[in-house]
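Each letter names a residue; structure tokens follow underneath. Both lines appear below:
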Amino acid sequence: DGYSQLSAYERKRLKNITENAKFFAALKLHESAARLHQIATKRQSHVTKRAKPKKAEDETVRRRSMRLQRVEPSGIPMPEMPAQPGVEEYPQVPAGPLPMVPEDQMGNSKLTEDLLTTWMRISEVLLVIITNVLMMLSRYQDSLNSMVLSEDNIKKVVKYRVCSMAIHPSESIIFVAAGDKSGQIGLWNVNCKAEEGAHVFIPHNYPVSCMHFSPFNPAHLLSLSNDTLRCGDVTRAVFDEICRSEESLSSFDFLEDNASTAIVGHWDGDIAVVDRRTPGTSSELSADIGFKRTRTVHVHPVNKQYFIAAGSVDVCIYDVRYLKSNGNKPVSSLKGHTKSVASAYFSPVTGNRVVTVCADDKLRHNNNTGRWLTRFRAVWDPKQEDCFVVGSMARPRQIEVFQDTGKLLHSFYNLDFLGSVCSINVVHPSKNILVGGNSSGRLHVF
């Protein structure tokens, strides 16, 4: 009514605009954006505001960290889960959908728009399945030797310690996501040599312990923190909330190639099954698998009904089809670990091998990172069934590649540009690209 002078096309367009406006109004994104603006304003004022001097009688004894005092950590293990950070240090992120607004630029940013547009563009051409190509070992070693680190390919992407990373499967552009201990996610277009090639978002309140680009649609970046599993959808510029839990979440993996369902591990040892297609943010099933702690979960690459869970000293394989609330028995238990296990992953092509990282330092490999570094996770090279990459405590600082026999194949190092331990590493699924992340938020791309 009242628009009879418009053509049918113009009326249809007006109707679409109206419906879209109603949809986004229902999401209340403006409230989330206002909340994020408030967070940024508060964070900036917190940095510049000078605290009032305390009176001498009110002054308490200042606690200095053992690291600053150069004191060795005691034998008492630190709790794996960090305490909730203070509100002033890490402002709380609201529940529900969040707009993809960068932490450093709250207004309309051409630079941020370029970054997100790049992510969307390189995702549109990746609806084909990438085929793993296994190389002869000698040829594989030659490819490792050809990979180098340059000064342009080092960048501080997030503010704090890197806890997880994911690399986009694009073969044209190197696009990396990194999550840190405060809940920040940094997106970096490595090919963009400008200073503004990376931007930081804050979709979480706690350490981002696990991240994956969706294998079905890499325009989706799924990230997990203690209290929530989110999906960053660049086509809608929103961080959706998939699962929220009062029990602390530790890791996740996709149960299907279409990434519609996921297995989620809890720090208290339980396992949950999440279906992204169902409404709400609760899991479909919660199962006690007998673990005191579950640090990582990983789904078998071929037989996706099987997943492997790694915990305190436990590494077990379960069949998701038979999970129930209690009394779950593993299909297989991998014995031999005598200390804390940090991770366990199936090999990428057949799943016939499992690589674990344990504090018992097997392979004559020093895994004692201490409390100041993120624990090592050995990850398979997706292009090579029997070779994996892991951080190293050795000097000069390096990232090491091992064969499943225990043979050290290659050490990535650079005396000029790599001077820190890279605890978290990720390998490109089809290109000769390795990214290492350290405890100051800096990424190194070989």
DSSP finds four helices and 27 strands in the chain. The CA atoms of residues 54 and 61 lie 12 Å apart. The chain has a mean pLDDT of 85. The longest helix spans residues 8-27.
